[in-house]
Amino acid sequence: MVKLGSFPRGIHPADHKGLAAEVPISVLPLPKLLRVPVQQHIGAPSAVICKPRTTVAWGDVIAEPASFVSAAAHAPVAGTTAKEVAVTLANARHMQAVPVKPAKEQPDDSELWQALYGGDWSLLEAELPEPDQVCEAIRQAGIVGMGGAAFPTHVKLTRNAKKPVDTVLVNGCECEPFLTADYRLMLEAPAAVVAGARLAARACGAERIVFASETTKPRALDVLRQASAGQPRCQVMPLAAKYPMGGEKQTVRAAVGRTIPTGGLPLDVGVVVINVGTCAAIAAAVMRQRPMTHRIVTVSGAGIVEPKNILAPVGAAVTDLIAFCGGLRPDAGRVVSGGPMMGFALGDLDVPITKGTSGLTVLSQADLHVAEQTTCIRCGRCVQVCPLNLVPNRLGLASRHGDWDLARRYQMTACMECGCCAYGCPAGIPLVQLIRSGKARLPRKAAP
Amino acid sequence: MSDSAAAAVVAAPVIGAGPSPHLHDAATTHGVMRDVLIALLPVIVAAIWVFGWHALLQLALASAACLAVEAVAARWRGRRIPLADGSALITGLILGLSLPWSAPAYVPIIGGLVAIGIAKALFGGLGHNLFNPAMVGRAFVMISFSGVLGAGAYVAADAGDVLSQATPLTAVRGDGALPDAWILFLGKHNGSLGESSLLACLLGGAWLCWRRAARWEIPVALIATVALLALLGGLAEPVPGLPALHLGVVGHLGSGALVFGAFFIATDPVTSPMSRRGIIAFAILIGLVVWILRVFSNYPEGVMFAVLVGNAVAPLLDRWTVPTPVGGRVPA
Question: Where are the beta strands (DSSP E) in chain B?
């Protein structure tokens, strides 16, 4: 019996995963136009290298990384480019996007699936490429973390003599309610996930690979066990089902038992955390020279007619995905890019999805109830659930009054905005919003 | 929603935006207050069982006074009258439950006035008061009308059996003995209205903690502290003039307002610290002061003053017990 990994505090919201968990991944019918944003990642925007009206093949580079911490963008389909247009992404960033008008001739759905996730992913230990080659292939493929933060993956995996890595932690925890994209991928393409994890371990020099997912996904744990059986250095770690288990700090604590320092990275404790979708993308990039042009997106929630898990090209519009799911229900009240705990509410549905779009959660009006706002009665529920052991109500107060001494004393910048505090606040105080705005306004300490 | 508005929604969903998290559980401030009121029910029932209409009268007067002052204060401050949040009713009930059955009618009324008017409204209303309003009201009448509220007030020669006993804590100061533990547990003994039945306090307290309307660490740490001190005190040589030193664990826990106060008064979230270390220190401090007052002071009971002392240092405890974030403090 493996000991169940967990972390202190956190919450147990209803997961609503039943809506889409048993819906197999389907391929999005090709939209009339794709718009590929130039900055789908953390880091410098990519530099567009193709002129308007260029004919591109599937996977051709259309924008190159502008620095080390940046990522390339590729044509998600064969087609013709057009003059750049301005788009506003779900996270409210304004940027340029390269429109690609798909050509008539395209691979059919099963060819697309076979190319990206299907077929044989066996990889002999002796055939593993050199670490530099793996990193270079990942960089050229424009791979970024698909769990949400979209940090360029080659940066994480490049070896650093000062900070050796001993563990690759494959994050199969999908703790946001409603989302099932990673779950479906684990079930439908476990071999690609395992191959990608082995390549990642090869790149960063890790001695072991830990696959982690919650006990509420026993089938995912099973297929990972089967797919990694007989592979050296692999183990599967079941974790407690609670929110925010998928957060990097929480997963590392629960699966490996190490605590990432505040303001630090998993690298500081010898761990590289990679989302399962990113692993599959690494395998496709290294073994099949396929750049990151598609991803799996869950569209779910009480406000969508037919919840689905969709294999969609980057640059497809949110409206395309919603239409494929039968449209919005009359009582739909909010469309969220990502999950309902940390996702961004979309003000405009005509925006392209990116490499980091893990899902679209369509909430009904009834889902959106918030307790009527009263003064804080200091009940302490926010303190009892904060996974980072902060005091959210004091942080909210500090933000509201611009009391930056208080904000620093209570470690405002350590907050990761997971939303546990605001989820359970009986006084209906928008704690996350207050803290977020407080962090943005917090003056930098004056130089001594 | 009118029919025409419903039709409009069918035509096109109204999509709005808002900050994350987009989901919330069903907790509300009203709900927390409702849970406290439910938890008070067994205590109120026990008080009426023991003291009859005397209890009913005290509770009604104290609650009416608190609600009336709350309404007036809200009007003066230009607020919607927030009686529905239930907090003023809770203050009134706890004030009433802390009074002896024999208190003259002006006592609960003046107590309620001071509790809500001075201890709560003047500080800014719900969530802003430094001291537990009910205990401020209780302390005010205690000091102002000590003649009708002292230990003797609990005893009336012409009343029935229970009502003419000395309270257990007073009895041990004279030559009296404690009632049986069983009587202390069920509550057929004299005392303030809410403190007589241990069983009722435990029932209500369990509900409070289970519903997370109170944090369980407070009653546990507070009662454990007094129990430990009672044990240690029992080991000491008897000292003339300090009879409560040898009251024993059963005596300390079963008599007086300790259990009632531990579950219903010290747990007031507004006037207790936030962090876990803070509330445990807070509860231990209150327990310590209760024991000191009971053993060394002229008052037979000390819960009220102990809670007020705890309230006074709660902000300081908050300041001293800022939790360290997981992963350590933010690097400078």
Answer: none
Q: Confidence band (pLDDT; 50, 70, 90) for A294?
A: very high
pLDDT, tens digit, for every residue of A57-83?
A: 999 999 999 888 999 999 999 999 999
B31 touches chain A (CB under 8 A): yes
Q: Is B5 on the interface with A (CB under 8 A)?
A: no
Which candidate in A175, A178, A337, A391 is best for mutational testing of the B interface (most B CBs within 10 A)?
A391
- Beta-carbon contacts of residue A389 (< 8 Å; ≥ 6 apart): A8, A9, B323, B324, B325, B326
Angstrom distance (rounded) from CA A249 to CA A7: 9
Write down the pTM of the prediction: 0.88
Chain-chain contact of A426 with B29 (C-beta, under 8 angstroms): yes
- In chain B, positions 56-95, which contact chain A (CB-CB < 8 Å)? 85
Query: So what's the ipTM on this one?
Result: 0.88
Q: Residue A253 and residue B326: Cβ atoms within 8 Å?
A: yes
**Residues 6 or more apart whose Cβ sits within 8 Å of residue A325:** A299, A304, A305, A306, A307, A308, A310
Judging contacts by C-beta atoms under 8 Å, the chain A residues touching residue B329 are 262, 411, 414
Give me the residue from B13, B21, B215 closest to A329, CB to CB.
Answer: B13
Return phi, psi of residue A298, to 5°.
-85, 130
Per-residue confidence (pLDDT) for residue B170, from 0 to 100: 67
CA pair distance A57, A34, nearest whole angstrom: 14
Per DSSP, helices labelled H in B52-132 are 53-76, 87-97, 106-112
Residues of B in contact with A436 (CB under 8 A): 19
Chain A partners of B127 at a C-beta cutoff of 8 Å? Answer: 374-378, 427
Q: Is B15 on the interface with A (CB under 8 A)?
A: yes
**Residue A86 bridge partners (DSSP):** A96
CB A396 within 8 A of CB A435: yes
Nearest chain B CA: its distance from A98 CA (Å): 27
Strands (E), A301-348: 308-313, 332-337, 344-345
CA distance linking residue B274 with residue B117, whole number of Å: 25
Longest dimension (CA), chain A: 64
- What residues have CB less than 8 Å from A111, skipping those under 6 apart? none
Average pLDDT over residues A144-164: 89
Least Cα distance to B87 among B106, B111, B115, B114 occurs for B115
If you write DSSP's letter for every residue of A3-69 in order, what string do you get?
PPB--SS-B-----GGGTTTS-EEEPPPPS-EEEES--SSSSPPEE-S-TT-EE-TT-EEEE-SSSS
A165, A204 Cβ separation under 8 angstroms = yes
Contact B222, B287 (CB under 8 A): yes
HEC-encoded secondary structure of A190-241: HHHHHHHHHHHHHHHCCCEEEEEEECCCHHHHHHHHHHHCCCCCEEEEEECC
Closest residue, chain A, to B22 (C-alpha): A340
d(CA B322, nearest CA chain A) in Å: 7
**DSSP of B253-274, one letter per residue?**
HHSTTHHHIIIIITT-GGGS-S
**pLDDT single digits (tens) B118-170:** 999 999 888 899 999 999 999 999 999 888 776 666 665 455 555 556 676 66
Residue contact A345–B269, C-beta within 8 A: no
Q: Name every chain A residue with its beta carbon within 8 A of the beta carbon of B30.
A: 372
* Residues B260 and B90: beta-carbon distance below 8 Å: no
For residues B296, B302, B307, B308, the Cα torsion angle rounded to the nearest 10 degrees is -80
- Calculate what percentage of chain A has a pLDDT beyond 70: 98
Portion 188-247 of A in contact with B at CB < 8 A: none
Neighbours of B166 (CB within 10 A): 19
Coil, helix or strand at residue A313: strand
**Cis amide linkage into residue B21, ω under 30° from 0:** yes
